[in-house]
Structure formats: C-alpha cells, structure tokens
Amino acid sequence: MTTPTHDHPTPPGGPDPGGSGGSTGRDMDEPPKGGSFLGYLLRKLGGALTSMILVVVLGFFAFRMLPGDPVLKIAKERPMSPAQIAELRSQYGLDKPVIVQFWDYLVGIFTGELGESYVYRKPVSDLIVDYLGPTLLLTATAAILAIGLGLWLGQLSAWRRNSLFDKMASSTSLVFWSVPTFWLGLILLMIFGGTLQWLPTGGMITPGLDPWSFAGIIDVIKHLILPVITMVAVVYAQYLMVMRASLIEEMSEDYLTTARAKGLTEDEVRKKHAVPNALLPTITVVFMHIGGLITGAVTVEAVFSWPGLGKLTFEAISGPDLPLLQGTFVVFSAIIIVMNLAADIVYRWLDPRVRRA
C-alpha cells in the first residue's frame, strides 16, 4: 500500500500503514486491548498445529484403506514362497498390530525417519530430499508467472471494465481454469512435443548433459516450458478474477475522484492509489494457492514425467508404497498449512482493519 501524503489522498476510513494520517491512522494502527499480535499468532499457530495433527493421523490410516497388498504385488514380480512372503511382511513391519505400526509411524515423523520405500528400497526422507528440488523449480517458476500474469491482467480488466479487452481476458482465463490439468497437459504434449516436435516430451534434462553447464541450463528451460505453461494456464485465472473484483470495488471510492481532481493521470490514479489498496484481498489467495500449486504438481509431473515429488507420489500410489505415500502426503500438507499460516500473518500485517477485528 502507498502511505498517504498531502499529495496522495487517503480513502475515507481506509488503511494508513504509515500512521501519518492523524488520529484516524493512529486508531487504525493501534489494535484494541486483547488484539495483540502475539495472541493472534498463538491462535493461528494453534490452528495450524491442530491441522497438522489431523494430517499426520489421516496420513497413516487413509492409505491403509487403499486396495491392494504391497507385499503380494512384490511377490507377483518374482516367484516367492509363503515363507518368503511372510519374511518380507515382517521386514516391512506389516505383520505388527495396527496400533504398533501407528506408533512407529509417529516416532518416524518426529525423528525424520519416514521408513524405507518398498519400490525404491531407499529411505523415504532421502527420496523426498532428492525429488524436492525439481518440484520447487517447476512450481516456483509457474507461481511467479501465474501471479504476475493474473494480477497484471486483472487490474487492466477492471480498469477497462466491460471493454472488449476485459471480456476477452476474463472469458479466456475462465476457459483455462475449467479445463482439467491432465487434459491440457496431454494436448500441449501431443501438439508441441509430438506433432511439431518443438519441445521435449518428458523428463527434466536430456541424459548425458551437465545440468550446471550452459547447454544443460538451456535444456532444462526447454523441458520446463510445457509443464509450466500447463500449470500457469489453469491457475492464473484465480488471481485475475480476485484482482479484477477487488479493483472494481475500489474504483467506486471517493478518494480516487479526489486524486483525479488534483490532476493525476488515470495511470497514476490506478498505480498509486487503486491497485495498492486492491492488492490486499489477493494476499491470502496468493499464499494459499502457492501451497496448492505444489500439490497440483502431481498431475503435471505425471503427464510430463517430471522427476519431482508429484511423480514420486503418483508412482507410490500404484504400489501402494505406504511409507512413500505417507511421507509425500505429510510434506505436501505441511506446505499448504505453512502457506495458509503465512497468509494470515502477512494479511494482518498489511491491513490494519484486520488488526482491529
């Protein structure tokens, strides 16, 4: 938000983060008794902790209801006697009572020992660390582009409300928003990777290339294009629509009329006054969907064979690889919970009206 000065009018009753707007700004900046930041933070931390406990419990019991026995599936891949199957079940701890398995699972969560993957025969924690980097690269790139594109088009659409540009931008974004992610990914894969053969069809880098060399970096960028476009196309509409609605609401405020009366151009009114105030409601949406974007990578990574946590989760489901499923589920859920907590904290810090609530 822009701190009001004598050249920049403040909206009546609007936020004044700098506290320079006289008694109104002072009242907005000073929360009432009982509304301290520490109390607010503790309440939010308590809610996040409760959600995390539910996630941990659900992560154990939900996957045990999946059809299929992982030991029997492994036994189908190579001939095994009943004694060998029983030994394998004992090795994985599946012969123990459920309550004992749950206790071992809880101990592993707190110690970072998430068990050993049935498929990869490696510690789950090591697999998560190895596959987390590609997922962060993919989702961070997609998030930056989706947020930038959505907020930019959203404020332009609102400022040109009911124009041809507004109708085209809004309708196009809604079409992409409604398209299933896997379907759009497959279409892009068939057109640009199959028919035209302009871009790689899968993976993160061509085998044999050094990812830190110039040629390797260019190759990774080429592999990123299709999955990033897929993720951006189905996400940016959310930011566009929220920004558009928020800015349209701000456009009816009297302080914008005052700003125009002082001789500011339309671009100055939009950039210096309307957009900073309209950005506040989008903060929560941005943080919430950053967490959701990472979980949404499961579909995209499976379609494009991107070597990240999403593809790892998809492969674990077919097992079912219980330790791997539990580990990725907890990691994905923890990311969403942390992002939601960050959204609450940042939004309270930015908007004094929330501090007075």
Automatic annotation (TrEMBL):
Q: What is its main location?
A: membrane
Write down the InterPro entries for this protein, in alphabetical order: BPD_transp_1_N, MetI-like, MetI-like_sf
Looking up CDD domains in the UniProt record yields:
TM_PBP2
- The organism's taxonomic lineage, starting at the top: Bacteria, Bacillati, Actinomycetota, Actinomycetes, Micrococcales
Q: List the GO biological process terms.
A: transmembrane transport
| Record GO cellular component, one term | plasma membrane
Supply the source organism for this entry: Brevibacterium sandarakinum
The portions of this protein that span the membrane are 45-63, 131-153, 174-200, 220-242, 278-304, 324-347
Report keywords, A-Z.
Cell membrane, Membrane, Transmembrane, Transmembrane helix, Transport
- Name by which UniProt lists this protein: Peptide/nickel transport system permease protein
What Pfam families does this protein map onto?
Answer: BPD_transp_1, BPD_transp_1_N
Topological type in the membrane: Multi-pass membrane protein
Secretion signal, residue range per the UniProt entry: none
Localisation per UniProt entry: Cell membrane
